[in-house]
């Protein structure tokens, strides 16, 4: 499958926007959330949205960073899995509800927010919200333009 659009070649404005988007992604890597939580959330949001290129990237990066195959394979069924911490479960729950805004009919519920707030301070919660929002945006860029998956190399984007 070929992508419908090459963002790098789509003109100067697009190039500028992509540069800023990539910078935001780099800044999120420096956020105070635990690295594995960031990977789990990015992967789960991408699974929900069906973004193959992001699933490819986050699975490979998480593996390269030492995450176990068991944890990666159970992300889609995290509610029934025993391999995630309470904090990770709260982050995954928030990520799911925030990604499925239309299904949630009112956004993220107070109970879901309260569970996340039990595990994360304000700076971490802000990082989590931004990460979920960022992943939803990037997923949509990739899905709309049918970016192909499978060729990503761990760390390819810095």
User: How does the major sheet shape up?
Assistant: none
Please write the CATH class name. Mainly Alpha
CATH architecture: Up-down Bundle
Q: What does the average pLDDT come to?
A: 92
From N to C, what is the helix and strand string? Answer: HHHHHHHH
Write the CATH homologous superfamily.
Answer: AhpD-like
Describe the structure.
With 158 residues, this protein is mainly alpha-helical. The protein has one domain: AhpD-like, CATH 1.20.1290.10. The protein has eight helices and no strands. It has helices at residues 12-29, 35-49, 52-64, 69-74, 86-99, 101-104, 110-119, 122-144. Helix 2 (35-49) packs antiparallel against helix 3 (52-64), helix 2 (35-49) packs parallel to helix 5 and helix 2 packs parallel to helix 8. InterPro entries: AhpD-like (IPR029032), AhpD_core (IPR004675), CMD-like (IPR003779).
């Amino acid at each position: 499958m070929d992508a419908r659009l090459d963002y790098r070649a789509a003109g100067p404005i697009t190039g500028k926007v992509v540069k800023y988007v990539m910078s935001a992604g780099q800044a999120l890597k420096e956020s105070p959330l635990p690295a594995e939580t960031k990977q789990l959330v990015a992967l789960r949001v991408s699974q929900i949205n069906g973004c193959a290129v992001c699933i490819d990237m986050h699975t490979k990066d998480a593996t390269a960073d030492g995450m176990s195959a068991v944890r990666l394979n159970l992300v889609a069924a995290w509610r029934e899995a025993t391999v995630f911490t309470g904090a990770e479960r709260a982050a995954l729950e928030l990520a799911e509800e925030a990604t499925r805004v239309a299904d949630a009919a009112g956004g993220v519920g107070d109970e879901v927010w309260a569970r996340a707030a039990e595990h994360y301070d304000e700076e971490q919660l802000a990082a989590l919200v931004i990460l979920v929002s960022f992943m939803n945006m990037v997923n949509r860029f990739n899905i709309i333009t049918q970016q192909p998956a499978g060729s990503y190399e761990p760390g390819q984007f810095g």
